[in-house]
């Protein structure tokens, strides 16, 4: 009898291992096969890059490689983040996944192959961890485990957010965190709960926040299931709370500096007013239970992605009818379910799950928790003596019929992402799902057949959904990356100093992260708001979480130390729009004829490299008058002129003068003598409305044009001398456009063609740049540069000699509490200049200056983490001694 028991145990262990292996391997093979079929790199000409994965994450992944392999100090700070910024928040949100270590083996353009491997592995590990949870909770679980695990791995959230690769660690760790909560009740131990929750907090604090909320809900569910007495329940509660606190303690070294950075960035966008309303008619979310309902249109503001397959959905409903499960547990599960469903449509709850900020694109980001809950309860029904009553199946069938009738009658309402074929495929899988439960009732050993059905259902959804998306070609990404790396590498090999580099072309706003150079553009969710605010003041396109340094002038290039400019050859003349579908190797970003004022120092078949003789050092001696500079009420042109002049100790210097056009021709548009601020209106709707502005420069100086936010490509087309004006769009404030340079006596023609009935010429003014006055100011500011002797990503050292007239060290390092200064070995106070930069008051003479950045609260966070580690170590040591006694 003992031998029989041992044989049974061996078979069970062997079966469990096979189930785990299958749960890992099935999602891996399915998604790898699909991607290979779609010819994703390294298996073809396409790539997995699309939307944010292609426009943001891939560049941050390249930055990850650079930091780990070449510059560890970039973990704290980076001058590749626009003109400089703290990086702890960026790491905590984007880059702490251990899967990213795979990227170390994929340099340059091959990084897309690394992304392929990480993506399929995250699918596979999601299936594996869910299978582990099921087996630990239900030791006698059948071969339904691989099917349910694959349904979890390929749930609607994962497929829809595959492009948000940074979020996919959450579905992997969620089952392990839930298992940790289970262990609190079963063994009284909190170690696994603490371990996995701490890891989640470190990997991605944002998704961890959602999991923490769900952990409270799951603890309530587990309490209802395991309840024996109030004392036992309270003991479990204390362990749960202490485990959560310990987890936060272990992660404090990263969480505390990250929280501070969030107060300077994302937290400033927090909603302060909440509307108690439904965001849509709740029954509409039923449409997302049909296969293939995700596409590009669903990304910005679609419905929640909660697809789990018909079989799991049926099991979820049947769970509540299973009288073999305690009524107390089912009531608790019902309350949690209602809360989760309301969260998917009731605005205050939706906002709560997203930390009081409405998501910018990708709504209902917590839907992976809803998917988990549905599949988990279905599994609980299947592995906890299911009743399989005929009455329950009939009731469930009626519920599905009502849902399908509603969807069919309202199919036109969902036509943007649902068609009839999807509806009938959904009906087919519902019918097969119901038959599967009938089969399972009569033949429990048919689990493997049902597993195939479940896998087929979710895989069909994955294929149909992903077929709706288009991706960046490998050549488009690879050719650009190769050329950018080559161009930047040439500059950096010749000049080892500290400087910034500008470009007239752009693939993404994080190109500087990808190629590891100091730039001026950036896009991330943890971007400090002071930089977009400053960029807006100097006429650069900006937004919540991004800036694009595309509209620099001779002044801003000089001030920000843009020492080198890489210019795509095609932009010697005006090129096609950056949004053009016919993307060249180096997509044009901006038109900068004033770059001809710089020195041409290099050229290849695609680019020209210019050296800016007016670029100032990262720090320079300036007038102490700048400490009082405000500029809040100045427009972009006045702001640039006044700031630069004040730095040189001048209060009245005027570097820009407004100009009149020589001739203005109106075609099918009402004539007006005053251009700036006027509203142009078409006379006839059927005819094109065009205004032609002609101007003949009287000097070879640069001329600039200001354009308000209404003067954008959505409202009009802009051409100069017959060719499209290339400018980054959209922009939400006034931008400064370089209109002409070295064009004395040559007529420059600007044409504006209206796309609508009217156009507001908001802040539309032409300016002449005073080159002579600028040169004098620059000469004065360049007399006392900070001669950088040593620099890395978080420290700059150098020597500077100043006089009484320029005894204030002005830097273009963005101000932050993490910056610390030493002058001649002694601590010095850092002053915030122009609400943006770091400055230090000096005394006349020569000084050695060291500026070092340490993330605020990093040391405090480390102390808290060490205390948490010490507490655990002391507890384990005390427990070990107690056992020995």
Automatic annotation (TrEMBL):
Key words, A-Z: Membrane, Transmembrane, Transmembrane helix
A Pfam family reported for this protein in Swiss-Prot or TrEMBL: YfhO
InterPro entries: Uncharacterised_YfhO (IPR018580)
Transmembrane portions of the chain: 20-37, 91-108, 114-134, 141-159, 165-181, 193-220, 240-262, 302-321, 333-356, 362-383, 390-409, 421-440, 447-467, 857-878
Recorded superkingdom: Bacteria
PANTHER family: INTEGRAL MEMBRANE PROTEIN, INTEGRAL MEMBRANE PROTEIN-RELATED
Protein name per its UniProtKB record: Uncharacterized membrane protein YfhO
Species: Pediococcus ethanolidurans
Phylogenetic placement of the source organism: Bacteria, Bacillati, Bacillota, Bacilli, Lactobacillales
